[in-house]
Amino acid sequence: MYKPNIKKMYDRNKELPPVPPIFEQDKLITKINSKLIEEKAGPNIVQLVEIKNPRRTWISFEYHLDIKYKIGNKEYKLLPNSYYDDHKAPYPFEEQLYNRLAMAQLQANQVTLNES
Fold this sequence. Notes:
This protein is an alpha+beta fold. The protein is elongated. The chain has one domain (6-115). A hairpin with a 2-residue loop joins strand 2 (62-71) and strand 3 (74-77). Strands 1, 2, 3 and 4 form a four-stranded antiparallel beta sheet that branches. It contains three helices and four strands. Helix 2 runs parallel beside helix 3 (93-115). The mean pLDDT is 79. Helix content is 40%, strand content 24%.
């Protein structure tokens, strides 16, 4: 089995270009939050709070973001935090983010329904 050379990957990370500015944070947060409110799958609504610290991985079209969201008063970190800006990715970044948050909202509401 192929064993990746972690040191080589880490060194290559310094050669990669910075993450392109693919979104305006305030506009994106407002847009995603309004879509999540429209989706409303139950009493719990996920609210996107913060998107920060974009960084590349050793794969040139993959990057990480630290994304925080709230359900009620509890804050969570969205994991996995990898996104793709390659034209071969099945969905654009905004749709990737929305799908993950919508799934978190569905799961939160499913847990609430099961507890009832």
